[in-house]
Amino acid sequence: MSQPSHLPGLTPQFCFNQTALRDFLRISRSAIDDSISQNLNALLVPGQRSFDPASTSSRSLSAPDRSIPPQTCDTFKQRILFPSWKVRSDVLDYCAGVATAPDPDDPDSVLRQIEDDKMRERVVDERLDPYSARYFPKEARTESLAMLMRNERAVEKIIRSRTWSVVGERCGMESDSAEEAFGKWREGSKQRRA
Prior knowledge:
Structural class: mainly alpha
Shape: elongated
Distance between the termini: 30 Å
Helix content: 55-70%
Strand content: under 5%
Radius of gyration: 25 Å
């Protein structure tokens, strides 16, 4: 069975390294959420029921019972699924904070300032070249990170919803949505630590 993801060292450099950030999220999602059916299948104990020789005398068109005992499902959710979601949420929250904070260490800020100054000084005659007035300033790395965080949060919401529906099918439907169940688990884990 899969193990929950481990929290990487959270630094602004980790967040600004979008390749490392995306790789962490991709690997974490693939270990738990993308392979949720396999993870749930691993919870089933083979041979729980003894073999019935009469089962070979007739053809059964119904699917075998693939439901998982509630206790086993709860343990999986508490120890594997929700901790993995928490690690990803912590990374997304931290990097979103980095994206909204001022970035005095931005290596491209001086270059952007020089480009902006040049564009302000430039004289443009749009009658001669209507496209000469176009100026597309390079976005700051915090803006790029903020866009990535919005996209990754949307992806995370979709993945959690899909995972939760599979868990609901195999473990028994719950009335809570994925976010509600995760929120309750987070509150409970905070209270257990306190």
